[in-house]
Structures are given as structure tokens and as C-alpha cells.
Amino acid sequence: MKSIFLIFKRDIKSMVKHPGALLIIIGICLIPSLYAWLNIKASWNIYGNTGELPVAVVNNDLGASMNGQNINVGSEVVKQLKDNHEIGWKFVNEKQGTMGVVSGKYYALIEIPEDFSKDLASLISDNPVKPEIIYKVNTKANAVAGEITEVAANTLVGQITTNFVQVVNEKAFSYLNVFGDNMNKNKEELKQLKNSIINTNKNMNFILETLQWVNSNSINLNEYLKDIKSTLPYVNSGIENLQNNAGNIELLVKNTKNTLNTSFNNLNLNLNNSLKQSQNINELINVLYSEQSNKTKQEQEAIFSQIKSKIDSISSSLEAYENFLAKINEKINNKNISKVLKDLNNIKSSINKEKNDLKNLQNETNKVKEINKNLVETIKSDSKDTLNKINNTILQYNSYLKPELNSIADNLIKATNEASEIIGSTKNLTNEINDLLNVATQGTDLASTSSDNLIRTLNQFKGVLGELSNKLENINNNELTQIITILQANPEFMGDFIANPFNLKQEAIYPIPNYGAGMTPIYSVLALWVGALMLTSILSTDVVDFPGSENLSIRQKYFGKMITFIFLALIQGLIVSVGDKLILKVYTVNAPLMILFALACSFTFSIIVYTLVSLFGNIGKALAIVCLVIQIAGCGGTYPIQIDPKFFRVMQPFFPFTYGVGGFREAIAGPLFSSVALDFISLFLFIIVFLLLGALLKKPLDKIKKKYHAKFEEAGISEE
């Protein structure tokens, strides 16, 4: 051991005695940190600087008229974008925008066509046309910029859609509120009108019998005509009121049905989304248990987090659905809505049980370091139960609740249409009846003729009135009350609910304030490997002869020279990590842990690279570079390893970068000590493996390496 340290002491003395060598050593120690710091600083807040990303906006919208009002959605969009500084919007004409995208002046172009407002307004007409926004992107200029601008374009389209749907529904429900209030005020009159028509139809036989008797007993005609005139005004008044209100009722019912269909289709979408999330939970549970032996603790925690997120998503969707139905049921008190609400409470109970069982499984897994089969089976049973209940709720909704409301609206529309036709055909008949009655009262000498005319006219009126009466009997008073209640709902609430049926609540598990802190692990670890490569490229791995070196074995020289490389690598790691914290002010939850991981990475990487170069010479340098390239792509430092090709997913556990980057992340975002221990142990195993390789192979490969090196020098192309 003493002989080994003689080599290290000799190297340190040589560095100190020669200023030129010392200057180079200082440069070697500083350059890796510059590499890391410059890259980290360059990516510090790239997504926060998207306001500097030029995107052309061309507004060709000519505007349109909707409900008697002029609108220009394109101008409104431009106005909003001028106040939006998340992207560098440039407002130009079509020619400037197109040339700018082609030349690379703008990364993308968003064009609002001439007929955009016109097509958007057509969505509430009988012949809707789907509007378009033209998006052009220059992917040659920059691939990432294209992705950013595409997200911005999609967000813009989503905002336009949401705002339009909300405004249209608010307006619709504002109008429906007026109709609903009028119907509510005249509700009793409408009921009386319906009852009057039905009663008149029932008494028609009595009226005809009376006229027959009058025809044969003209002496008492005036008395009977008074009785008839006292009955018919109800019919005349009722028919006139019904004719005045039939058009409004039909419009109300149609608008109500369209609004209900839109709202309940969104509810159906919520239920189906919850069903899909529940299925995903079941799949994740199967993945957790079936592959748990191959999963790291960190990956298991990620799966637990995904399952919890999906459970929360189901709860949020179902809560929005429950609140909406509850508000309707407060007024209607419908048995099918009550049944669905009861089913939703059962689903919530199942979800809460599933969430508690998942928490118990996670806690036990953290304690005993393995998956409890019984708890997994319990959670699978919970998930299956939740899935079945959601399926049953969807079936209950589609089979009973939605058809019942649609049936009410359909019956009202059908009845009011037929009533309008019948009322139109009876209007002239009632006028004739009144004329005949007035003439009949002028004298009993016309009694016989008048009664004949009345009988004939009433026989015609009897069929029409009977048909109208039958249609009105199909309209239930409770159904009318339910529709009036829905029409009186708050317009702002209904408009916002239909446009945004639920809100997304985001919670960061390990929050990191900026992108630079997130990229610090990969750039720092990469810099430390580059530093180890620089050491082997500039410094020799062979021991220069000095007094006493002839007594050293090859293995002693290998370990003695290694100490020098480790010492310099540790200096590199210390500079990089301390600079990350003090110079760049990188966010860290545990700064000492980050420095410790930097030293551990430097120690490990220096042994790996030194051993490769010491054993194989220039070939070892090439191998170290190949390892660097493969690890950049396959350690999961920039993109999730799950989206990389299968080769990298398989090889990731065998890369030192994996554990170096993982350790830095634990220190920066917040340590999970099981993951910290795994990273340290893994790096230690790499040290053991390469120390054994060096100790076992150094002597047998030394002569081969020297022979190969000599041949390479003879070629005259090697560096002296």
C-alpha cells in the first residue's frame, strides 16, 4: 500500500514543480464545470422565454351576423393575443406571414380565414359548417419550436371553442329564462285552458242534444241559445289563447331539448371517461404486481402516483356529474335521477375504499420492500367493483334517465304541432258559430234554420275539438313543471358548466421551479464523465520510471496511478456541484447530498474510464466515448426512458449515468431515501466490478497493449 502511494506523491510533486503542468491540470479541473454550467444556464428557463418565439398571425376574418348582432371572432382573437405574451405574436398580412414562415423569420403561421365568424355562427343554424384555423409550421427552422407553436395553436383553438360555447349557452338560457318565467306565470292559465278544451269536448254531445231539442221546440230557442252562448266563450277564449301561445311553447320545447341533449351528452362523456380511467387503474395494478420484481422502488412509486391520479380524476368527474344532477333533482324530484345519484354515492364509496387500500399497500411496500399479494387482490377487487358500478350507472343513464327527458320534450313538440294545425282549422268554425248565434237571437222565426246550421257546424267542430282534446290529455302537468324549472336555471352556471363540465386540479409531487434545475442532473453527470475522459486523454495512465519504480509490480502501478486520476476527478466533481449551487443558484432540497453524489459519480467514472484506458489504451478511450454516447440516450436524463427504443430500456439499469442522474434528482427535488440508497449502492457495485477487472486483467493485457501501441506509433499517425 505504501508503494502505491509513492506513485501518487510523485505525480503531485511533479505537478507542483512544473507551473506549465499545473496550469494544464487546473484547466482540466475547470473545463468540465464550464461545460455543465453553460448548458444548464442555456436551458434555465426556455419555456418561460417563449414570448421571444416569433409566430405570425394573419386575420382575414370578415365577420358575420348572429341573432341580429354583428360579430368578428378574428378581431376578438387578435385583441386577446395582443395581451398574451406567452408567444411572440406578430400581426401581419397573409403575404408577409407566408414569406416569413418560408424564410424562417417566423417559426409558424396562424391564419384566421375570411369565413371564420360566418362558419362559427352557423353552428346554431340548421346547416352548421365547421370553422377552420390554418396552422403552418416551419419544422426545418427548429423541431422543438414546432412542437411549442403547435401546443400554442391547439390552446388557442380550445379557448375559442370554450368561449363560444359558453357565450352561446348563456344567451340561450337567458332567452329560455324569459320563456320559462312567462310559462311559470301563466302556468295555471295554461292548465285551465287545457282543462276547458277537454271539458268542452266531453260536453259536446250534450250541446248537440240541446240543439236537436231546440230545433223541435223553437218556442224555447232563446233560452237554449243563452245556455249555448254561456258555454262557447270558454272555447273561443281558450282557442285564441292557445293559438297565441302555441308558437312560443314549441320554440321553448325545442330549445330545451337541444340544450338538454348538449348537457347530457357531456355528462355521458364524463361517465365514459371515468370508465376508461377505472380500466386504466386495473391495468396499472396488474403491471405493479406482475412486474414488481423487475421494478425499482422509484418506478413503483411512479405507478402508485399514476393510480392515485386516475382515482382523483374519476372522483372529480363524478362529483361534477353529481352536482349537476342534484341541482336538477332539487326542483324535479325524479325517481330515475334519484336512482342515479344513489348509484354515484355507491361509486364514491368504492373509490374511497380503493384509495385507502392503495394507501395501505404503498405504506406496507415502503416498510417491507415488497408487494403484498393480499392487498393487491383487494385493490383489484375494489377496482373491479368500481368498474362494474360505473358500467351500471352508464346503463341506468342511457336506458332510463336520458330517454325519459327526451320523451317529455318529443311529446310536447308533437302535441303543440298538432294543436297548432287543429286550432288553425277551427278558428273559422268558431267565428261561424258566433255569427249564427247572433243571428238566431234576432227572432224565433229563424230558429229552425239557425239550429240546423249550428248542428251541422258543431258536428264539424266536434271532430277537430276531440282530436285537440286527445292530444292535450297526453301532456302531464308534472312534466310541464319540470321543463319550466330547467328553463329557469341560472344562465351563467349552465353556460359555464356545458363549456367546462369539470376543472383540472394540478398538484406537483416534487416541485422544481425552472427547467434549468430539471436539466442540472444530466448536464452535471455528463460533465463529470467528460472530465474523466479529459484526464485520460491528456495525462498518461502509465507510470514514468523513477527511483524505486523498478520494484513495483504492474498491479501496484495500476492502483497507484489510479489514485492520481481519482484525486483530480474528485476536484472536478467538487467544482461542478458547488458551482451549480453557489454560482448558478440551482434549486436544491438537499445541497450536501448533491455534492456527495457529485463526488461519488466522479469517483466511479474516473475508475471506469481509467481502467478502460489503462487496460486497452486508445481502444479504451474509444470505448469510454461509446459508453458516453449510449448513456446520453439511454439513461433517461432528458426524456422518459419509457419512450426510448427497447434497447435502451433494457440497458438502462446497466448504465452508471442512470444512478448518477437519479442521485442528483433526489438531491434537487427531494430525496426518497430508498432511491438514494439504491443509487449509492449501484455506483459502488460499478466501482467493485471495474477494480476487479483492472486487478485481474492488467497484467495479462499489459504486454498486448504495449505491442499494439508500438505498432500504432510505427504507422506515424499517433500523437507523440
UniProtKB/TrEMBL annotation:
Principal localisation: membrane
Record-linked InterPro entries: ABC2_TM, Phage_infect_YhgE_C, Phage_infect_YhgE_N, T7SS_ABC-Transporter
Sections of the chain in a coiled coil: 341-381
Domain ABC-2 type transporter transmembrane: 27-230
Subcellular location field: Membrane
TM regions (residue ranges): 21-38, 522-546, 558-579, 591-615, 622-641, 680-697
Cellular component terms (Gene Ontology): membrane
GO molecular function: ABC-type transporter activity
Membrane topology annotation: Multi-pass membrane protein
NCBIfam families, per the entry: pip_yhgE_Cterm, pip_yhgE_Nterm
Name under which the protein is recorded: YhgE/Pip domain-containing protein
